[in-house]
């Protein structure tokens, strides 16, 4: 079993798709280990996406990620990191496969409904960024 980190982004929370996305994740074998709603601060969003600080879309991305509540999740399944990226679909919904979260619910390449860690190492870092060890322990 492997854990990964995911965020239902402000666009999908605002449009009332959070429940559908959670159902899709569960039907794809993910167990919800920890879950919390939050409104990210500027510095939390900047730190979380610091890897993109030099990209032209960084300022806009941080503004988007702080515009409204998000749902932070620790998810578990076999091969969780890779499987979540498959269920999410491509960053740009125009390129996302049928049935993926982004094909179904993303509005644009920026407002794309869901985040998922891109490697086991980043999953561990991102889980630690938002959850403490008690929240991440087996229930
Ligand atoms: P995430 O890290 O959120 O799971 P990702 O790994 O598919 O998404 P990244 O390249 O890490 O894609 O980009 C992080 C986020 O930045 C994207 O999910 C999207 O919200 C935004 N983004 C990426 N590329 C662009 C772009 N060209 N224009 C606007 N926003 C973008
Ligand atoms: Mg990414």
CATH topology: Alpha-Beta Plaits
Beta-strand residue fraction: 15-25%
Shape, please? globular
Distance between the termini: 14 Å
- Total domains, how many? 1
Just name the CATH architecture.
2-Layer Sandwich
Indicate the topology.
Elements: E1 2-8, H1 10-14, H2 18-27, E2 31-38, H3 42-48, H4 58-65, E3 70-77, H5 80-88, H6 101-105, E4 114-116, H7 120-130, H8 133-136
This protein binds adenosine-5'-triphosphate and magnesium ion.
The site of adenosine-5'-triphosphate has 10 residues, from strand 4.
Give a written overview of the molecule.
By secondary structure, this protein is an alpha+beta fold. The protein has one domain (about 1-135): Nucleoside diphosphate kinase-like domain (Alpha-Beta Plaits, 2-Layer Sandwich). It is built from eight helices and four strands; from the N terminus they run E-H-H-E-H-H-E-H-H-E-H-H. It has helices spanning about 10-15, 20-25, 40-50, 60-65, 80-90, 100-105, 120-130, 135; strands at about 1-10, 30-40, 70-75, 115. The protein has a four-stranded antiparallel sheet. It is globular, with a radius of gyration of 14 Å. The two termini are about 15 Å apart. Bound molecules: adenosine-5'-triphosphate and magnesium ion.
Summarize the structure in short:
The chain has 139 residues and is of the alpha+beta class.
Keywords:
alpha+beta; four-stranded antiparallel sheet; 8 helices; binds adenosine-5'-triphosphate; Alpha-Beta Plaits; 42% helix; binds magnesium ion; 139 residues
